Amino acid sequence: MEGDTLWQALALVLVFEGLLPFVSPTAWRRVFAQILQLQDGQIRFFGLLSVLAGLSCLWWLL
What we know:
By secondary structure, the protein is an all-alpha fold. The protein has three helices and no strands. It has a domain at 24-62. Helix 1 crosses helix 2 (25-37). The protein is flat, with a radius of gyration of 15 Å. It starts with a helix and ends with a helix.
């Protein structure tokens, strides 16, 4: 059961990651180009925020 939940969560990540390029490839390309302009520290900061948000959601749900 636990393994199935992990695979379902990973599948949902893929669905959400694919929505913007599918719905609006031009906007996705623009966002991706802007991300490439960021410095490593800025990208790490957004990554940290994402990890903390995910952990907060998990903590809240469990």
